[in-house]
């Protein structure tokens, strides 16, 4: 198997090298690359129809993702808070750490399978993948920049005008092109090669261990309503009872109804082993703490999800053994191929 | 029956004669496309708008000054006397009272013809609010886009009032939102006082008065003690329902 992968990688590398010969062809703004839907995934929400994927566009997005010049003081880039080894979350940071040592209020989410996501940020305030970087770029506590300054800086920084020309046909750099290039990169970040995926797709006889299998059964019984397969989220906004009164309004920031205080976007559980700490404010440092919360820590509030109110004591009763079996299953969602994929690696 | 056919034939031929007379008359058939210049003049009631310096009084009797006044007008449809309308695709204009260049904008590729009015959106339609990264007047770099709750700010009024409880007596009215229950997209019709003639070889001007005071009166009289600052939401709807009928008025046309 390993040898096959090596051969395939070499072949892919050769293909890429072959394509780079066409880089200077002005008529075609970069060779096309394709977005592939994994066999066990639904149709994606973002289809690249108005943002044609090209090798030049994707690689520009890759370079921009790790570009410090996007931040006001050249100190941070997207990858600072979205680290590859943490499935593009921010390992061991409860909240994001922006320029001028400013700490935000929420935990940086991991980045993968974004093409299937309809609402972005913990409160769903951003409704389109292309605009999902805007808040981080301009928030004074994150990258603290303005779009005008970013496009002006890039316009004066080699090789960006040339890279934009390769990607979009002319060297003009505007915010639309910045967002479209970043989206080509982010949209291609597909995590679908975990052990779970291989078991589901029956690849190479992959199978769960007895604990993983039992954990999967428990997961389907107790967790899957919100964390729906295969994306492991239903994309809804719910309160999982972290606080009686949530300091962070969460979804209510957007809906302003009062009824959504303390509701947050249900996060995917894919790569959950890698993305600690957990919850919108990073309050839980381990998966064990998260499972214990569901077992015995859920607090009543008007917004508490009905699914957690079924018993006299809110929450999901789980024996220690059940908790550890669920965690065994959750670890099968770790996608090492994804986090080590050179296409997304730090530059 | 025969009589009927005869009468009908007579009627048709008479109509033909009548129409052909018209056709061969002096009015040439209008073809091609033309453009129109929209000139926005900013006023507060009957006074010219002077940013930063002049103090005005709203319908509630509250004093205020204006520091920022910007708004989108979009999706223009020009109206004909026969009730038909011609929609202009990709017509999104951002007007800024502090920027003279933005107060004079041109719409091109309008089919030549005589128009009696224009229908337009105050703000940006729902589809374009959620369509991904845009450019031109809809570039988020224009500062009329919310990053925390994505969508356009349709109209931005900022100023000060002694009645405001905000820090430094600020007023900030940021109207926006394209989804229920806070959908502030409003469509309005402006009737032209005289016919606008669009021709391929002409350069007509439509002179529009934009009245800041329309934000604070109409359906709801706004008190700055009660409403002094918002980013979308219910207060934005109050203000949008006020200005939909009074913000823009066509004063005159130069054909």
UniProtKB/TrEMBL annotation, chain A:
GO molecular function: cytochrome-c peroxidase activity; electron transfer activity; heme binding; metal ion binding
Signal peptide start and end residues: 1-17
Residues that hold heme c 2 according to the record: 223, 226-227
Keyword tags: Heme, Iron, Metal-binding, Oxidoreductase, Periplasm, Signal
One GO cellular component term noted in the UniProt record for this chain: periplasmic space
Cofactor or coenzyme needed: heme
Cofactor, free-text remark: Binds 2 heme groups.
Residue positions binding heme c 1: 78, 81-82, 97
Post-translational modification: Binds 2 heme groups per subunit.
This protein's record includes keyword Lyase: no
Subcellular location: Periplasm
Keyword Iron: yes
InterPro entries reported in the protein's UniProt record: Cyt_c-like_dom, Cyt_c-like_dom_sf, Cytochrome_c_Peroxidase/MauG, Di-haem_cyt_c_peroxidsae, MauG/Cytc_peroxidase
Positions of the Cytochrome c domain: 210-334
Name this polypeptide is given: C-type cytochrome
UniProtKB/TrEMBL annotation, chain B:
Domain (Copper-binding protein MbnP-like): residue spans on this chain: 33-225
Pfam families registered for this protein in UniProt: MbnP
Matching InterPro entries: MbnP-like_dom
Highest taxon, organism lineage: Bacteria
Protein name: Copper-binding protein MbnP-like domain-containing protein
């Amino acid at each position: 198997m390993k040898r096959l992968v090596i051969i395939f990688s070499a072949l892919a590398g050769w293909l890429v090298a072959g394509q780079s010969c066409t880089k200077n062809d002005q008529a075609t703004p970069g060779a096309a690359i394709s977005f592939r839907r994994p066999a066990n995934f639904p149709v994606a929400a973002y289809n690249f129809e108005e943002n044609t994927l090209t090798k030049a566009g994707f690689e520009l997005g890759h370079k921009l993702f790790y570009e410090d010049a996007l931040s006001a003081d050249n100190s941070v880039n997207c990858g600072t808070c979205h680290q590859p080894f943490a499935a593009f979350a921010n390992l061991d940071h409860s909240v994001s750490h922006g320029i001028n040592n400013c700490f935000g209020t929420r935990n940086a989410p991991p980045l993968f399978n974004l093409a299937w996501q309809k609402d972005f940020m913990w409160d769903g305030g951003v409704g389109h993948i292309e605009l999902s970087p805007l808040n981080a770029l301009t928030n004074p506590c994150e990258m603290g920049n303005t779009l005008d300054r970013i496009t002006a800086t890039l316009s004066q920084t080699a090789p960006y005008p040339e890279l934009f020309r390769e990607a979009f046909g002319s060297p003009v750099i505007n915010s639309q092109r910045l967002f479209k290039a970043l989206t080509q990169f982010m949209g291609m970040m597909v995590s679908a090669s975990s052990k779970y995926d291989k078991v589901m797709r029956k690849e190479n006889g992959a199978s769960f261990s007895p604990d993983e299998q039992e954990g999967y059964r428990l997961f389907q019984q107790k967790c899957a309503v919100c964390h729906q397969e295969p994306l492991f989220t239903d994309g809804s906004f719910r309160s999982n009872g972290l606080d009686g009164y949530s300091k962070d309004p969460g979804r209510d920031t957007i809906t302003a109804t009062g009824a959504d205080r303390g509701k947050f976007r249900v996060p995917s559980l894919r790569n959950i082993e890698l993305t600690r700490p957990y919850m919108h404010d990073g309050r839980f440092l381990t998966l064990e703490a998260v499972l214990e919360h569901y077992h015995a820590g859920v607090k009543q509030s008007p917004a508490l999800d009905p699914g957690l109110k079924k018993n006299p004591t809110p929450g999901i009763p789980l024996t220690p053994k059940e908790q550890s079996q669920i965690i065994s299953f959750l670890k099968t969602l770790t996608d090492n191929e994804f986090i080590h994929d050179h296409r997304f690696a730090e530059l | 029956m025969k009589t009927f056919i005869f009468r009908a034939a007579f009627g048709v031929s008479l109509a033909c004669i009548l129409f052909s007379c018209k056709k061969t008359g002096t009015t040439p058939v209008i073809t091609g496309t033309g453009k129109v210049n929209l000139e926005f003049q900013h006023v507060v009631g009957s006074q010219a708008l002077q940013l930063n310096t002049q103090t005005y009084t709203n319908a509630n009797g509250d004093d205020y000054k204006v520091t920022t006044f910007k708004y989108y007008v979009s999706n223009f449809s020009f109206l004909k006397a026969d009730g038909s309308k011609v929609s202009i695709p990709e017509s999104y204009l951002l007007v800024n009272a502090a920027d003279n260049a933005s107060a004079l904008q041109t719409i091109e590729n309008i089919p030549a013809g005589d128009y009696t009015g224009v229908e337009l959106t105050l703000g940006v339609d729902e589809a374009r609010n959620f369509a991904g990264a845009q450019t031109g007047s809809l570039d988020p770099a224009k500062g009329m886009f919310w990053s925390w709750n994505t969508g356009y700010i349709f109209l931005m009024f900022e100023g000060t009032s002694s009645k405001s409880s905000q820090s430094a007596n600020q007023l900030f009215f940021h109207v926006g939102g394209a989804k229920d229950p806070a959908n502030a997209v409003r469509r309005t019709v402006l009737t032209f006082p005289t016919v606008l003639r669009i021709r391929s070889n002409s350069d007509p001007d439509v002179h529009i008065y934009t009245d800041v005071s329309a934000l604070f009166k109409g359906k709801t009289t706004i008190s700055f003690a009660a409403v002094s600052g918002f980013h979308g939401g219910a207060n934005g709807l109050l203000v949008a329902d006020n200005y939909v009928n009074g913000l823009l008025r066509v004063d005159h046309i130069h054909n």
